[in-house]
């Protein structure tokens, strides 16, 4: 992003040096505003957002047009409704490559914020291609519970679906903590919910979906996925809880 501005954006279109200077100043102000917003959100989750996140944050924010986000492809198998309300969807996701990072912070919110920041750097040019890779949704987090599904373990995996054009040859991350994994084709049972995601809200959604499903025992009992369609800094997030059908 920095290489493109202001040269390619302003030179050759009749702009004066003063106009270019003003555009640069506005660019810097916008970057500062976004960084300070993320830093204030981070403090709420006890996460420090470093200054080197300013550029990835600005790049992702600019590229946040919903039409430009590639959704992870799936085949809808079944929709279960009750009096017009959608209870859950049964979907099949195909085999695909994901960039994954394991986190083990004290709180779930800390893990997803820190994991998401590392993935943002990878998406925003810190990869072997040197290119902005593009946003895909949802960003997913794999969580684990004890056998009785009464509490979550601290270890989570935050994962980013690689856009289809990069599936065959994913760019290598510069961050050695990020691993490219190929996930097998999977059937999931998905239920939507809104708001923050923390240990309490996730356990509530797990128990709710377990009650709604006719045969929850067909799914893994200790591994679940939280799918996030909105960035972790958003107040009213759109999320889904996914149960994974046993292979």
Automatic annotation (TrEMBL):
SUPFAM superfamilies: Probable bacterial effector-binding domain
Biased amino acid composition, Acidic residues: 17-31
Segments of this protein annotated with the region Disordered: 1-31
Highest taxon of the lineage: Eukaryota
Residue ranges that the Swiss-Prot or TrEMBL entry lists as coiled coil: none
Molecular-function annotations in GO: heme binding
Pfam families per the UniProt record, alphabetical: SOUL (PF04832)
Family in the record: Belongs to the HEBP family.
UniProt name for this protein: HEBP2 protein
Organism encoding this protein: Balaeniceps rex
Species classification: Eukaryota, Metazoa, Chordata, Craniata, Vertebrata
Gene it is expressed from: Hebp2
């Amino acid at each position: 992003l920095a290489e493109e501005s202001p040269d390619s954006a302003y030179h050759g279109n009749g702009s004066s040096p003063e106009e270019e200077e003003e555009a640069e100043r506005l660019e810097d102000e916008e970057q500062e505003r976004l960084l300070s917003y993320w830093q204030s959100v981070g403090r709420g989750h006890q996460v420090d957002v470093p200054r080197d996140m300013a550029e990835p944050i600005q790049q992702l924010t600019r590229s946040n047009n919903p039409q430009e986000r590639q959704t992870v492809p799936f085949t809808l198998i079944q929709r279960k409704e009750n009096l017009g309300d959608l209870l859950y969807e049964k979907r099949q996701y195909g085999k695909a490559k994901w960039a994954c990072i394991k986190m083990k912070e004290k709180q779930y919110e800390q893990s997803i914020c820190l994991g998401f920041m590392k993935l943002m750097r990878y998406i925003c040019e810190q990869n072997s291609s040197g290119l902005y890779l593009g946003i895909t949704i949802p960003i997913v987090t794999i969580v684990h519970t004890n056998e009785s599904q009464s509490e979550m373990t601290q270890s989570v995996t935050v994962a980013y679906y690689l856009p289809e054009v990069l599936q065959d040859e994913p760019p290598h991350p510069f961050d050695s903590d990020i691993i490219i994994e190929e996930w097998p084709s999977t059937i999931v049972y998905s239920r939507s919910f809104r708001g923050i995601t923390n240990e309490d809200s996730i356990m509530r959604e797990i128990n709710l979906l377990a009650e709604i499903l006719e045969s929850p025992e067909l799914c893994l009992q200790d591994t679940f996925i939280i799918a996030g369609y909105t960035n972790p800094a958003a107040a009213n997030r759109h999320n889904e809880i996914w149960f994974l059908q046993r292979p």
